[in-house]
Backbone:
């Protein structure tokens, strides 16, 4: 994901890669990257929206690790 800014598309918060039978979703939340591996049949919108559900968990992890 660190190469994405070279495309000059602005700040990227997610990347989605689709393969034959697998979808890989990378979400940047705070200073963490969350990688989700799902079936190619999974809803991309639902996978991207997991950011909202994971945000509070990531904040708690960052706080516990002293990263916040």
Residues:
């Amino acid at each position: 994901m660190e190469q994405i800014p070279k495309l000059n598309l602005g700040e990227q918060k997610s990347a989605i890669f689709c393969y034959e039978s697998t979808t890989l979703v990378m979400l940047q939340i705070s200073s963490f990257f969350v990688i989700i591996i799902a079936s190619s049949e999974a809803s991309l919108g639902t996978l991207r929206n997991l950011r909202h559900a994971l945000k509070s968990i990531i904040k708690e992890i960052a706080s516990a690790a002293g990263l916040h």
